[in-house]
Amino acid sequence: MNIIEATKKALKENKAITTPEDKEHGIVFVPTNSMPLGIVIVPTEPGLEKVEGIYKEKWSSASKFWNPKSEDLLRDDWELF
User: Which end of the chain is more exposed for a tag (fewer CB within 10 A), N or C?
Assistant: First the structure.
């Protein structure tokens, strides 16, 4: 579903939204009507990233604000978490 549909559904069901790639790394976005406008949740353990055929730890970093790219907004594979 697109980000608008996912956000409306997440607010109604009190859930987070994510994309398949972010879900793999344990990253979800909790939409809110509060001052920060949303909460990004990142895992406390590293994920794995394949680099030149070798898996290496990849840590996700939290940020104060989510700055989506146009491709994030145009995706149609957002899902509830």
Answer: N
Q: 79-80 and 17-18 as β-strands: parallel, antiparallel, unpaired?
A: antiparallel
SS3 (DSSP) at 57:
strand
pLDDT digits (tens, 9 = 90+) for 19-76: 998 888 778 888 877 765 556 666 556 667 788 888 777 766 555 566 788 999 999 9
What's the distance, Cα to Cα, between the start and end of the chain in Å?
A: 13
Which sequence spans correspond to the domains of the chain?
Answer: 3-80
Name residue, tokens 């987070």: 16
Please give the structure tokens belonging to residue 11.
Answer: 């607010």
Q: Which residues contact 59 (CB under 8 A, 6 or more apart)?
A: 46, 47
d(CA 40, CA 22): 11
